């Protein structure tokens, strides 16, 4: 069901919807069509200039270039609040990994000396928003993901049962080297193994 999906672009729309409600606040966005569409549907005012931007929102943008970097840089230095949909530095494709939103965010953090507010994992805002909307508590939630420093970390922070899938970005050797704070409760090779996994809360 589409209403059960909470991509980081949707979380950005929820967050900015609260911040900009009944206010003349404009948002400068760097991302792809999905992010723009989510913000437009939430009736958030968008801008294409750095001078009148109150927020700078950065997501995955495969057409990011120096001009966009400069525009975001100027807006942040002018006082715009810096928001990141996620900080994944790479993204898996059929040809291998490619730079992702986190690489863009990092470039802006380094150049502006400003730290981005992260809406997605491992920040608590995203998962708390999902759980609240569904009426879930930590006791009846299971988090399944492929990232130690995103999925597993946010699950640990909220004391949720965590399941790591090894078919994504985390390799077995990375798991073995992980500190206790990033160790999942369960490990499976692929999502196909999930139905047969016997999970005990607590």
TrEMBL record:
UniProt cross-references to InterPro entries, sorted A to Z: HAD-like_sf (IPR036412), HAD_sf (IPR023214)
GO cellular component: cytoplasm
SUPFAM superfamilies xrefs: HAD-like
GO molecular function, one term: phosphatase activity
Protein name from the UniProt record: Uncharacterized protein
